[in-house]
Amino acid sequence: MNQTNTVFEILKWKSKSEVSDEQMISAVNVMVADLTTLQGFLNQTLYKDSNGFWVDVYYWETEQNAHDSNGAMADKASFKDLMGLTRA
After folding, report:
1. How far apart are CA 46 and CA 29, in angstroms?
2. Pick from 37, 29, 27: which is nearest to 65 by CA?
3. Could you tell me where the DSSP H helices lie in 1-88?
4. 47: helix, strand or coil
5. Is the pLDDT of residue 5 over 90?
6. Hey, how many other C-beta atoms are within 10 angstroms of the C-beta on 29?
7. Which of 7, 25, 65, 75 is most buried by a 10 A CB count?
8. Are 55 and 49 contacting, i.e. CB atoms less than 8 angstroms apart?
9. What is the DSSP-derived secondary structure letter of residue 28?
10. Model confidence over 15-52: pLDDT tens digits?
11. Between β-strands 41-48 and 7-13, what pairing exists: parallel, antiparallel or unpaired?
12. pLDDT above 90: residue 78
């Protein structure tokens, strides 16, 4: 991955109290499988910080690819399932 020109998209959220770390990781992995089909997707990194926030970093070839992914993922079951695990 050439990080010189890579676009980073960083998301941060908390899961609902009844959601286990394993459930969250699984839901993110299912969604990432859908992301891999999108143009310009390079990679993804997920971690949970000491305050209980999940931080997900997505790597894209271009800023346009990152923007286009929002619309492409909005109706995907994997995205909706993940959003159902997060706090509003």
Report:
1. 10
2. 37
3. 21-35, 63-73, 77-83
4. strand
5. no
6. 13
7. 65
8. yes
9. H
10. 999 999 999 999 999 999 999 999 999 999 999 999 99
11. unpaired
12. yes
Residue 20 backbone dihedrals phi, psi, to 5 degrees: -80, 160
pTM, to two decimals: 0.89
Tokens matching residue 76: 């995907």
The region, left, alpha or beta by phi > 0 then psi within -120 to 50, assigned to residue 40 is left
Assess contact for 79 and 58: CB atoms under 8 A. Answer: no
Nearest to 8 by CA among 57, 80, 76: 57
**Max CA distance (Å), the chain:** 40
- Decide if 40 contacts 66 (C-beta within 8 A): yes
